[in-house]
Design a protein that fits this description.
13 helices; Family with sequence similarity 160, member B2; FHIP; mainly alpha
Length: 285
């Protein structure tokens, strides 16, 4: 009986023992600073990224973002996501990936964006500080001489899946693809840019809303009715089949971009890459 009492006491103590609270934002910032520190301290330009702790740091940052989201309402923006958006971390990652420094960094950036879009529940493609870097990364895919088709097609498929979930983001994703062939097309592209700059979410915000959270909001009360549009108001907000079809057909004529990259990858020598590229095209159909 005495042994049983001791065991019960130990179990009770174990339940009452709490881990020290970890500040997610501090941890997130620390991981990001460690990534940037690698560039400052590394002197060997030929050292591949796999021999640094950058991949691990990026995975930790992603895990923190996903965990933070599970602890709050979907419409809320946590401090870690807010930091990522305010400090333009995604744009910085795009530049590092494009520079391919250290070697293999482009692959790590593709993986990060892929998992960010697939694991996060928030409609991130509505945010200009997300869809702009996504556009830039898309334009780096399927280029001659690149040997990361697997990661490229996984990233592109993730983008297509999110567009399928939130059809109104299609115009934002294809914005850079609508290059003008004439004056009318140029004006149309400018209008599409303006529509994408104002995220289509219709959540009302107070004046105390943070700058990042306001990216989810509709246009401000001071704006004119002609510019203050919501998904259900702005000419079906690019969700109507006619508009989406127009965007897709126009974008398909341009080198670079989502459709072009997917079409290029359907010609890959790897069957798995061809299959995923075809799946992406079907999601946009």
């Amino acid at each position: 009986m005495e042994t049983f009492s001791r065991l019960s006491s130990l179990l009770l103590q174990a339940l009452e023992t709490r881990e020290p609270t970890v500040d997610l934002l501090d941890s997130f910032i620390d991981h990001w600073r460690s990534v940037t520190t690698c560039y400052i301290q590394t002197s060997d330009d030929s050292c591949p990224v796999s021999q640094t702790d950058i991949p691990w740091r990026l995975r930790q940052m992603l895990d923190i973002l996903v965990y933070e989201e599970t602890q709050q309402a979907v419409e809320d923006t946590g401090p870690c996501l807010e930091y990522l958006l305010q400090h333009k971390l995604l744009e910085t990652l795009c530049m590092l990936g494009k520079a391919q420094y250290p070697p293999g960094m482009f692959q790590q950036v593709l993986l990060f964006f892929n998992k960010l879009l697939t694991r996060m529940q928030k409609p991130l493609l509505e945010l200009i500080r997300v869809y702009r870097p996504v556009q830039r990364l898309i334009n780096l895919c399927a280029l001659p001489g690149c040997h990361v088709e697997k990661e490229e097609v996984q990233f592109l498929l993730a983008v297509c899946s999110r567009v399928k979930q939130d059809p109104h983001t299609l115009r934002c994703v294809l914005e850079l693809l609508e290059q003008p062939a004439g004056l009318n097309q140029s004006q149309h592209s400018t209008q599409a840019s303006n529509q994408c700059t104002d995220p289509p979410c219709s959540h009302s915000q107070t004046s105390a809303t943070s700058p990042v959270q306001s990216e989810y909001s509709a246009t401000s009360p001071g704006q004119s009715e002609s510019s203050a549009t919501s998904p259900g108001q702005s000419e079906s907000s690019a969700t109507s089949p006619g508009q989406s079809e127009s965007c897709v057909s126009g974008a398909a004529l341009t080198d670079g971009g989502l459709l072009w990259a997917l079409l290029q990858l359907t010609k890959s020598q790897r069957a798995s890459v061809r299959q995923k590229a075809s799946e992406g095209l079907l999601l946009l159909a």
